């Protein structure tokens, strides 16, 4: 670890007992800042994003299936989900697409049927469904 004026200013990597990476964080001025990653015990990437301080995510956060396929992507601002969100099936097909504001679903979202091309469209206001269409 590296310190500047008594505050951590470095990359910090934590490991599982078997030596595989568990987490990777960047610290500036003693606070987690910038990119971070969490890994599963098998070494595969679980999720990654960017921080502006403790639990203050910003920008896209991506979650992955163990096979490396993208599972979910959502955007954060000031630590709250705000912006586009998408979820995928293990085969890569789109499962859900929508938008969030301050951590709640907002506006039109689409839920796709994994067995067909059918979908359901839902309109959200403050996280509650107010309208639904096929």
- Spans of at least 5 consecutive residues whose pLDDT stays below 50 are none
| Structural domain tally | 2
Judging by the overall fold, what is the CATH architecture of the largest domain?
Answer: Single Sheet
Number of helical segments?
A: 0
- Say how many strands there are: 14
| Helix-strand makeup class | mainly beta
User: What is the top-level CATH class of the largest domain?
Assistant: Mainly Beta
**Portion of residues within helices:** under 10%
Order of helices and strands: EEEEEEEEEEEEEE
| CATH level 4 superfamily of the largest domain | Histone H3 K4-specific methyltransferase SET7/9 N-terminal domain
Q: What does the radius of gyration come to? A: 18 Å
Organism: Hymenobacter antarcticus
Protein name: MORN repeat variant
InterPro entries: MORN_2 (IPR011652)
């Amino acid at each position: 670890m590296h310190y500047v004026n008594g505050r951590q200013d470095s990359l910090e990597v934590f490991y599982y007992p078997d030596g595989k990476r568990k987490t990777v964080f960047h610290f500036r001025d003693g606070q987690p800042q910038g990119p971070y990653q969490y890994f599963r015990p098998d070494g595969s990437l679980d999720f990654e994003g960017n921080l502006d301080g403790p639990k203050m995510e910003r920008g896209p956060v991506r979650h992955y299936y163990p096979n490396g396929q993208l599972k979910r992507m959502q955007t954060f601002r000031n630590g709250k989900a705000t912006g586009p969100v998408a979820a995928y099936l293990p085969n890569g097909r789109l499962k859900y697409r929508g938008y969030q504001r301050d951590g709640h679903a907002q506006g039109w979202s689409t839920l796709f049927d994994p067995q067909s091309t059918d979908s359901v469209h839902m309109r959200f206001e403050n996280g509650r469904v107010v309208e639904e269409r096929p």
